[in-house]
């Protein structure tokens, strides 16, 4: 339809009204497997655990399962799990940061970066029975390193008090995947450190120690704390490695949970749900701290 605007003027054409309907994007099919996987193996099991924590065997509502978490034995298991998680997270952050710093800023040959990152990607996901067997074959009573130290150097690890099936042994085992995970997380943060910051600090008369104390570490601090929180959650929820390595000799929450769900003597599924619910709360807090601090560190780097 056209409208006349007078002599010598071009007509105005009325803009057609768009009536096209929004089409369903087939791009959603690409994420459908992920959404289905998250629903079946994350969301629904979590809902079952949370609901089961407040149920009796006949399906009624109760707070007894939550109250039973404050039994001395269960509190002790949580405390041991927290101590192991804190120890492995602290040591993992420390040694992982040193390796990442040496690789990015310490002057190591550039050809080492790719092998280190590749190994870290594999080792950070190496856990469970294979990892437990590897450490038993290495640091067990008849392990390779144990025998070498005993026969070649006269050092008896177990005579000095070391025991792989203990707090220290489990912490040492967890470091195998904690250190590589730290390397993978901290390396991008170190890559984001700008050379101009170091040059500006040097021009103002700052020493290397002052630069790290007053410039670099404040910028990297959120990343380090976030990495610690993630490593804590990663260690706290590990069950296969601990169970395969120590069995029931070390009473930590994942092993106690396994006994309540699958055991013949201590079987109480709803108490197991409550134990798992407590683990979800603790690891959820740790992951929330990690995400929050990670976002802060990304703003700093930008």
Count of discrete structural domains: 2
The count of helical stretches stands at 12
- Which class of secondary structure composition applies to the elements? mainly alpha
CATH topology of the largest domain, by name, is MetI-like fold
Low-confidence stretches: none
- Spatial gap, N to C terminus: 53 Å
Q: Considering DSSP H and I runs of 4 or more, what fraction of the residues is helical?
A: 55-70%
Output the helix-strand order.
Answer: EEHHHHHHHHHHHH
Instruction: State Rg.
Output: 28 Å
**Strand composition percent:** under 5%
CATH H-level homologous superfamily name of the largest domain: MetI-like
Tally of extended strands?
A: 2
Major β-sheet strand ordering: 1-2
CATH class group of the largest domain = Mainly Alpha
Backbone shape: globular
Question: Which architecture name of the largest domain does CATH use?
Answer: Orthogonal Bundle
Mean pLDDT figure: 83
Counting copies of identical and different chains, the oligomeric state is: single chain
Domain ABC transmembrane type-1: 78-290
Protein name: ABC transporter permease
Membrane topology: Multi-pass membrane protein
Transmembrane segments: 26-47, 59-80, 86-108, 129-149, 211-232, 238-259, 271-293
What does this structure look like?
The protein has twelve helices and two strands, in the order ββαααααααααααα. It is mainly α and 302 residues long. The chain has two domains: 33 residues; 231 residues, MetI-like fold, CATH 1.10.3720. α1 crosses α12, α4 crosses α7 and α7 crosses α9. The radius of gyration is 28 Å and the shape is globular.
């Amino acid at each position: 339809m056209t409208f006349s605007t007078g002599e010598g003027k071009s007509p105005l054409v009325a803009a057609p009204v768009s009536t096209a309907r929004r089409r369903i994007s087939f791009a959603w099919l690409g994420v459908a497997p992920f959404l289905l996987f998250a629903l079946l193996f994350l969301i629904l099991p979590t809902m079952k655990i949370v609901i089961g924590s407040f149920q009796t065997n006949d399906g009624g509502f109760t707070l007894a399962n939550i109250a039973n978490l404050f039994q001395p034995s269960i509190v002790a298991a949580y405390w041991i799990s927290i101590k192991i998680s804190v120890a492995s997270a602290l040591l993992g952050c420390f040694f992982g940061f040193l390796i990442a710093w040496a690789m990015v800023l310490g002057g190591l040959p550039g050809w080492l970066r790719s092998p280190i990152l590749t190994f870290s990607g594999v080792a950070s996901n190496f856990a469970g029975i294979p990892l437990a067997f590897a450490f038993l074959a290495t640091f067990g009573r008849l392990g390779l390193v144990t025998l070498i130290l005993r026969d070649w150097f006269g050092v008896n690890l177990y005579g000095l008090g070391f025991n792989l099936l203990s707090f220290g042994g489990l912490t040492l085992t967890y470091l195998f995947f904690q250190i590589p995970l730290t390397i993978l997380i901290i390396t991008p943060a170190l890559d984001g450190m700008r050379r101009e910051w170091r040059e500006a600090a040097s021009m103002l008369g700052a020493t290397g120690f002052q630069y790290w104390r007053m410039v670099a570490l404040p910028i990297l601090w959120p990343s380090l704390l976030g990495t610690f929180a993630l490593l804590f959650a990663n260690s706290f929820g590990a069950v296969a490695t601990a169970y395969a390595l120590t069995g029931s000799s070390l009473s930590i929450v994942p092993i106690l949970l396994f006994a309540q769900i699958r055991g013949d003597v201590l079987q109480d599924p709803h108490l197991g749900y409550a134990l798992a619910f407590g683990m979800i709360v603790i690891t959820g807090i740790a992951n929330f701290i990690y995400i929050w601090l990670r976002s802060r560190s990304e703003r700093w780097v930008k």
